[in-house]
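Hi! If you just cloned this repository, the fastest way to understand the data is to look at a raw example. We've pasted two of them here, unedited. The first protein comes first, obviously.
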Amino acid sequence: MNKIRGILKKSFGVVKQHVGTDHLGNKYYIIPEQKTWTGQTIRKRRTVETVSAKVDEYQIGDIPSEWEAWIRGRRNDPPTIEELLKNEDYREEIKVKSKEASEKDKLLQDQEYKEGLVSQPTQTTIKGHASATYFGKNETSQEPTSTANTFEPGDRKS
């Protein structure tokens, strides 16, 4: 295998080693440090081939956070299947607990409103700023506010 890799490396330059695939179908590779035929050293890189081949179609969540941490070098070893499953279960557990806490808080808040311990939030109506031409009016006027008859060029007062 190393002989084949060596021949490919000399022939084509860059050899990438498959490290793993996630549940979305993204493939992760490592390109080891290499020297080119000109003597330049290419540093070790980590890369991904996403399911959606177009770069502009990338969306948040297309790459699991564990794999993204590996690609960015924040972790040395690629994530294992067990780790990915454990973290996915943990995220689902957090979502359920968050939903339960939100519902419990909503029920407590409704109870406090009924008992009169807390007053209901009031709805404020925004009428605009006092310097606006439509302040105090229910709707804005379609009429122009200036006719420009009083403007004269060069009429500056110093």
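Ok, and the second one:
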Amino acid sequence: MSGQKYVQTNSMFLDAVAKWQKNLGTVDSVLSCWQDVQKKWQALESIFIGSADIRVQLPEDSRRFDVVNADYQVR
């Protein structure tokens, strides 16, 4: 129990913990956002790549998707 008091009163330790919490929170936010982007991208792929009918109905959007998709796959 005496160690816990040390941790609570050690400002350097508390600052380091706060910094790690902030950094890990940022990583969590970025990964959550990236997961949302991937889900949406998968839906767009099934629409624009998997459906010739949609490509005919939305030619401009299909071309724009093709350009962005090619750039996305290169990275």
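That's it. A detail worth noticing about the second one: The chain is about 90% helix and 0% strand.
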